[in-house]
Design goal:
The complex is a heterodimer of chains A (219) and B (263). Chain A is 73% helix and 4% strand. Chain A is built from 8 helices and 2 strands. In chain B, the strands form 2 sheets. In chain B, strands 2-1-5-3-4 form a 5-stranded mixed β-sheet. In chain B, a hairpin with a 2-residue loop joins strand 3 and strand 4. Classes of the chains: A mainly alpha (219), B alpha+beta (263). The interface between A and B is large, with 45 and 49 residues.
Chain lengths: 219, 263
């Protein structure tokens, strides 16, 4: 029997794949903070990524495959979990025995985030293409597309909500990955839990600051 | 009544189910003159007396030692297995934890692996099956050796004792949003993996116990921590992480059956 056939093995794979995405979203957020620097820095950064084919394709393959495993095993495990309690309780736990809502609702925010990722790719990666030339090199003017999209209040509101859900997902997911990998120790776990929450807040605030910056500077 | 024996009125909503296949329903019952010194099970005894006097069937519930050590009593009280108080079994939960006029909902432990037998009584044979699959150690025949021949550090002994305190009540399964038995299984795996006596079957034990657990209809652990909060013996989540480590290592190292002794 291999690890992938056991629920515990599947959970480990789901967690590690989620961990890859947790690292990616931080890198994605940090890189895109260049929008605060200016159009040229932002576009040159994007151009450097898309012209580095091994990096681009390697990252895309890694992200797509980890997303597929994360989603499939997430759904498979959730379905098994739901079937483990056929009749629900009339009352939910309260007081000292209540657990965090984020940890109990991972599948729901996860699903919304999945749809957001698809919509996000359609909007930006496969969105309108205009070009700009810096130092004699023609490149995609991604900055103008981002600014145009981030000037739509309805889009920004939806974006902020989805990013907050991502932060919520990470607030449980990051520290949970350590537990799933078997890393729990009274000396380190409180710190891991705290850092998991800080990580979620940093990623969320970093992403949210970008449309807010665009809105504030466009008036 | 004097102040020493304060009494209260409690409005109960109790699950009744005639048989495993019955749909079940809640009944409402108001218990008057409930002493604050009563345990929750004693309240149920009083309710049963009242029901019997009215000609109804008594509500069936599991109980045995009533000292918080056997793990027989169960019940989900206002959504909390063993009630709202931490590190307490239902039999050790006292009515002074409630207020006069409180509404209390009492349900059985709900999990596919713990089918309701009747009313609040559930079948926890699934736990026995997990134990049978690996909860044992090999011992040499003959007279027992001197206990001091097996040195065990105080720290290790304390860690093993912490998880050995599991009474197998099933509150972890009842509390878990996924109906997972990870805390129970991990307590048993940890208990023996930590001690020298458990080393002979260490790897096969975790494989057998986890696979048995997964085959019995329990859900998977998603690290919500509800089990740890509901455990009357406060078994820590750390033991689930230990079981995870033990399982991954044993799974990776496991050899195909045909190769064993094949040289």
């Amino acid at each position: 029997m291999s690890l992938i056939q056991s629920s515990m093995g599947r959970k480990l794979i789901m967690g590690v794949c989620g961990g890859v995405w947790a690292l990616f979203v931080f890198g994605h957020m940090a890189g895109n903070m260049l929008i605060l620097v200016g159009a040229e820095a932002y576009n040159k950064y994007a151009h450097a990524i898309v012209t580095n084919k091994p990096l681009l394709y390697g990252t895309e393959v890694a992200l797509l495959s980890t997303l597929v495993f994360h989603v499939i095993f997430g759904v498979v495990l959730t379905l098994k979990n739901k079937s483990a309690r056929e009749q629900k309780y009339a009352m939910t736990p309260n007081g000292e025995k209540r657990t965090s809502l984020a940890s109990r609702t991972m599948i729901y925010h996860g699903t919304i985030i999945l749809f957001f990722i698809v919509y996000h790719l359609i909007t930006f990666k496969y969105g309108k293409e205009t070009f700009v030339t810096y130092d004699g090199v023609q490149m995609r003017d991604l900055h103008s597309l981002v600014v145009e999209v981030f000037q739509q209040p309805a889009y920004v509101m939806g974006y902020v909500v989805c990013l907050m859900l991502l932060g919520w997902h990470l607030s449980h997911g990051v520290s949970s990955l350590f537990q799933t990998m078997g890393l729990n120790h009274p000396k380190h776990t409180p710190c891991i839990k705290m850092l998991g929450k800080v990580y979620a807040v940093v990623v969320t605030l970093g992403f949210i600051s970008q449309p807010l910056y665009v809105i504030m500077t466009s008036f | 009544m004097s102040e020493i024996h304060k009494t209260m009125t409690i409005h109960l909503k109790i699950w009744r189910q005639k048989s495993p296949n019955d749909q079940g329903h809640f009944i409402e019952h108001t218990a008057k003159n409930v002493s604050e010194h009563m345990s929750f099970l004693e309240l149920m005894d009083v309710v049963n007396q009242e029901l019997i006097l009215k000609g109804d069937d008594a509500i069936e519930f599991d109980h045995d030692c009533r000292e918080g050590i056997c793990g027989t009593c169960s019940m989900v009280i206002n959504g909390n297995p063993h009630g709202p108080e931490k590190a307490t079994t239902t039999c050790q939960l006292h009515m002074r934890k409630f207020k006069d006029g409180d509404h209390i909902t009492v349900e059985p432990f709900r999990a596919k692996a713990f089918p309701v037998v009747k009313d609040l009584k559930v079948d926890r044979t699934a736990f026995d099956k997990i134990i049978t699959s690996g909860g044992y150690v090999s011992v040499n025949t003959g007279s027992a050796q001197d206990a001091n021949n097996i040195p065990i550090g105080k720290h290790t002994a304390d860690l093993a004792f912490e998880v050995a305190a599991c009474i197998g009540c099933g509150a972890c399964v009842a509390a878990c949003v996924n109906g997972s038995a990870a805390l129970f299984t991990s307590a048993k795996v940890s208990h023996m993996a930590l001690l020298p006596q458990g080393q002979a079957e260490r790897e096969q034990r975790v494989l057998n116990m986890v696979r048995t657990m997964e085959s019995l209809g329990f859900g998977n652990c998603s690290n919500t921590g509800a089990c740890e909060l509901s455990c009357p013996k406060e078994i820590p989540l750390e033991s689930i992480a230990r079981m995870n480590r033990e399982f991954y290592c044993a799974e990776v190292k496991e050899r195909p059956e045909k190769e064993i002794g094949g040289f």
